[in-house]
# Entry
Amino acid sequence: MKTYTTLSEAINDLAKKGYRANFNIESDCIVCTEGMKRLRPHEFQIDEIYRFQEMSDLDNESILYAISSPQNNLKGLLVNAYGIYSETATSELVEKLSDSG
# Structure
């Protein structure tokens, strides 16, 4: 797995590899914002994970997931503040995202 210095560098490089959809977390799934496709934990896989921390603000951490769903012909990215999903997501979704890291 490649090492990236910044979040934007990782996003740009992964987009070149086909990860073009944007995902957001909902309580029991992730949602592709472009097509409003809802993916339950069993419908996607996490291909790569990158964590970033701003040196000027050590409390400001983010995590980037490169996600694919072959059955839905989707590849995209999910960017989130590290650990923030655990407050609103179901245990199944949190487990899927946590186990991959």
Remarks:
- The mean pLDDT is 83.
